[in-house]
Write a structure and sequence with these properties.
371 residues, alpha/beta, Rossmann fold, 6-stranded parallel beta sheet, 41% helix, globular
């Protein structure tokens, strides 16, 4: 549900608003537009991501964000009304981000910052991300975040109030409905999934694997499926992890191991929809789009106690942080997912939620431009 204060922001948009969104092609940002509205009729238009080379646009290759540059801002200031940062600023130093803020001030353009990550999942050392947040959070004209817990942390660290707007759906709603129908026909063992994709710094699959094996062994008619990318689990891969690959080899038939290349989006949704529970092996982080995709597909989430995952959606929590892990809590969480699956996110409600989220953003932009 949206905060009551956010509902009060909604009012008819007066004209189309042009947003320089960093980036615009990310699925989260795409789903800030309302459902069932043609792009030409939308009250908010987001500029396409400039390609890093500056030639044309690239919807799927926006890294590093070309908009996060004082020169780009000065050159294109007449083309946007609001500058909205989501992701990609870890490609800029704090000094460079201060230059971006100064360029926006010089151009008279408001800055909105959605705080997705209070602890960067790709970093082992939190200090670089903290320094970048230390520029953007105080400088933003408006802050948004996804959970009450994150908003409290922002207030505690910087004394600033962030609007809490929940994460919209990730999977296309018609696709999610189709996958749900297919899973309803299946009669298979309870399937617990762990995905060791190209390992983020926050992931610690090696620590939790023995506990997952134990948890699944204690359940009747259950399977532990581990999926991994070739670059992590095959010798010669760019991110080959010999210890993890060795552990999986030792576990042998206790694990249904599947090694493959990167999933396409459709393959990823099919995979997640085939699971009864997906385990997040994160020692640090804040919010999760993976978690939201599981909600869309009706897959239960076993999530660590770090970050604000439990604030984001109904999960089965277990103790895992940068400094602590409790195997018994993981076993209990998997058992809880088996006994009491988390409630599916209602897809009609997900559609209404996305439209409400779009309205909140539209009216926030409108107010900033008027002010």
């Amino acid at each position: 549900m949206l905060q009551p204060a956010l509902r009060d922001l909604r009012a008819p948009a007066r004209s189309r608003l042009r947003i320089a969104s960093v980036p615009s092609s990310h699925v989260y940002v795409r789903h800030l537009s309302p459902t069932g509205v043609d792009a030409v009729d939308d009250a908010v238009v987001r500029l396409a991501d400039p390609s890093p080379s500056g030639r044309g646009t690239a919807q799927s290759k926006w890294w590093p964000p070309a908009m996060l540059d004082p020169g780009w801002i000065a050159q294109h200031a007449d083309e946007f009304d609001v500058f909205h940062v989501h992701f990609g600023f870890d490609a800029r130093t704090p000094a460079e981000l201060r230059d971006v803020v100064d360029a926006l001030r010089e151009a008279g353009k408001p800055l909105v910052f959605t705080v997705h990550d209070l602890r960067n999942p790709h970093h082992t050392d939190r200090r670089p991300h903290d320094a970048q947040l230390g520029v953007l959070v105080p400088a933003a004209d408006e802050l948004i975040t996804l959970t009450d817990g994150a908003a409290r942390e922002i207030h505690r660290r910087w004394g600033r109030t962030a609007l809490v707007v929940p994460h919209p759906h990730v999977v296309d709603l018609d696709v999610a409905a189709g996958i749900r129908r297919e899973r309803a026909k299946r009669r298979e063992p309870f399937r617990v999934g762990l995905h060791v994709k190209s390992l983020r710094a926050c992931m610690d699959a090696e620590a939790i694997l023995p506990g997952l094996v134990r948890a699944v062994r204690e359940l009747p008619d259950a399977v532990l499926q581990v999926n991994g990318h070739r670059d992590v689990l095959e010798p010669g891969g760019d991110r080959y992890d010999a210890r993890l690959a060795g552990l999986l080899a030792e576990l042998g038939p206790a694990v249904d191991l599947r090694i493959h290349d990167f999933f396409t989006d459709d393959e990823l949704w099919t995979y997640l929809g085939s699971l009864d529970a997906s385990v997040l092996p994160y020692r640090h982080g804040t919010h999760s789009g993976w978690l939201e995709a599981c909600r869309d597909l009706g897959t239960a989430i076993v999530a660590p106690t770090c970050g604000h995952y439990a604030d984001q959606a109904p999960v089965h929590p277990y103790l895992l942080t940068e400094t602590a892990y409790d195997e018994d809590s993981l076993v209990a969480a998997v058992r809880a997912a088996y006994d009491r699956p988390a409630p599916f996110a209602d897809l009609a409600e997900r559609r209404r939620q996305r439209d409400a989220i779009a309205a909140v953003h539209r009216d926030l932009y409108t107010r900033l431009v008027r002010e």
